[in-house]
Amino acid sequence: MNFAYHQILDIAQIKKVLEKALAKGGEFAEIYFEYRVETTINISENKIKTLNYGISPGLGVRVISGARTGYAYTDDFDFAKILNVAEVASYIADSNSKIKSVNLEEKRKIKQIYPIEKPIYLLEIDKKIEWLKRVNDSARSYDGRIKQVDINYHESTRYFWIANSEGLYVESDDSLFRIFVVSVAIDDGLREMGVSYLGGRYGYEHLLSNSPEELGIESAKQAISKLQAKPSPAGNFPVVIKSGWGGVLVHEAVGHGLEGDFNRKGISVYSGKIGQKVCSELVTIIDDGTIPNSRGSLSIDDEGTPMQRTVLIENGILRGYMLDKLNAKLMNLESTGNGRRESYRHYPLPRMRNTFIDAGKDNPEDLIKSVKFGIYAKSLGGGQVDIVSGNFVFEINEGYLIENGEITYQIRGANLIGNGPEVMKKVVGVGNDLEIEKRTGTCGKDGQHVPVGVGQPTILISEITIGGTQV
């Protein structure tokens, strides 16, 4: 890709912008430039409903003064306009101190931790559409009770550079895509939905090496199987949650509470508990930005900090939080490489990357066999969580009843209801089958959405409330 805008400022101009940003007494200034190319395709009702292609270059200037952040951005690269953006951001500070000089390093190119030889944007649009239509056709032809299929495709390729008043000057790029397939089955007044996914930080060879027919059938098959499901029992039961996407429970119910800003402000259930036992000794929770090809992996975060593996909870003991530069500074700690932003229109926040429960020693089949009567959650759906209390509600997208150690029949209408920290204390089994779900995760916070990965091995929770339709 020809990133024609990447030389919009030379080093001398960058220094002037940073110095302008610090003119009111700010402690730290940063320029973030981005050139992003995105494609979105939606197929619904057997036709292409939307097809969007966009190029969005832009630049943002951030100034930090104490705990305050000033941020302004522009997509007009006239140098005078950029200086004006820096001046606007500078007003977060109110000191009359003299302008600080800035000495920049030579710009460094940060190589990706996952090589992508053929970025997805290089594949012709007609080939992408043909592939997606095959997904649609296979899902619809699987069973006559499939009445609707929706396919959403999104790809994004980004080049960016970051320069700051501490002398950092780095550039990098990344690319990812995601396909989300929803099949709706209707029979005798009952309506059920099945989903399937494909994606990650891969090149187009990964798309072409996967069968579109299998992706469509996976979605349709799940929807049809749920038509035969029985109403879920309600009450307090042991629950086995399958490896992989089941980690979304940890992401939502625990992960957000471990982000630095909530803990600096003292509003998280985990605030002030470093070194204390906060969950079962079987549980180790990690946030890792270096897992190859996962949506939450990058070479550097959106502040230029190298990605790393961060142990948050080790054998039940809280070890640390996920930190960006601002919150790390205010807490007298070091950034963990968790400063992330949706685009140049946003300043970075401490966000998750790939958050998961680490592998244990149990055989997943033994965990199921140990349950006399309970629930097997093969796939979780959407959910809600309160960061302050840790209370959550999660839909079980695909679940089964466990009776006398065996999976018997499929259930529908089940929800997991509980409190994140309390549920983590009730983990009594952790499988040896760790799986990171790299394909589809997206996390929202303060109006910003960023790609993430989730994961876990199969886990057994001794008791959790199931909201069902059968008492």
Automatic annotation (TrEMBL):
<dbReference type="InterPro" id="IPR002510">
    <property type="entry name" value="Metalloprtase-TldD/E_N"/>
</dbReference>
<feature type="domain" description="Metalloprotease TldD/E N-terminal">
    <location>
        <begin position="29"/>
        <end position="92"/>
    </location>
</feature>
<keyword id="KW-0645">Protease</keyword>
<keyword id="KW-0378">Hydrolase</keyword>
<dbReference type="InterPro" id="IPR036059">
    <property type="entry name" value="TldD/PmbA_sf"/>
</dbReference>
<dbReference type="Pfam" id="PF19289">
    <property type="entry name" value="PmbA_TldD_3rd"/>
</dbReference>
<dbReference type="GO" id="GO:0005829">
    <property type="term" value="C:cytosol"/>
</dbReference>
<dbReference type="GO" id="GO:0006508">
    <property type="term" value="P:proteolysis"/>
</dbReference>
<dbReference type="GO" id="GO:0008237">
    <property type="term" value="F:metallopeptidase activity"/>
</dbReference>
<feature type="domain" description="Metalloprotease TldD/E C-terminal">
    <location>
        <begin position="235"/>
        <end position="468"/>
    </location>
</feature>
<dbReference type="InterPro" id="IPR025502">
    <property type="entry name" value="TldD"/>
</dbReference>
<dbReference type="InterPro" id="IPR045569">
    <property type="entry name" value="Metalloprtase-TldD/E_C"/>
</dbReference>
<dbReference type="Pfam" id="PF19290">
    <property type="entry name" value="PmbA_TldD_2nd"/>
</dbReference>
<dbReference type="Pfam" id="PF01523">
    <property type="entry name" value="PmbA_TldD_1st"/>
</dbReference>
<comment type="similarity">
    <text>Belongs to the peptidase U62 family.</text>
</comment>
<dbReference type="InterPro" id="IPR035068">
    <property type="entry name" value="TldD/PmbA_N"/>
</dbReference>
<feature type="domain" description="Metalloprotease TldD/E central">
    <location>
        <begin position="123"/>
        <end position="227"/>
    </location>
</feature>
<dbReference type="InterPro" id="IPR051463">
    <property type="entry name" value="Peptidase_U62_metallo"/>
</dbReference>
<dbReference type="InterPro" id="IPR045570">
    <property type="entry name" value="Metalloprtase-TldD/E_cen_dom"/>
</dbReference>
<protein>
    <recommendedName>
        <fullName>TldD protein</fullName>
    </recommendedName>
</protein>
<keyword id="KW-0482">Metalloprotease</keyword>
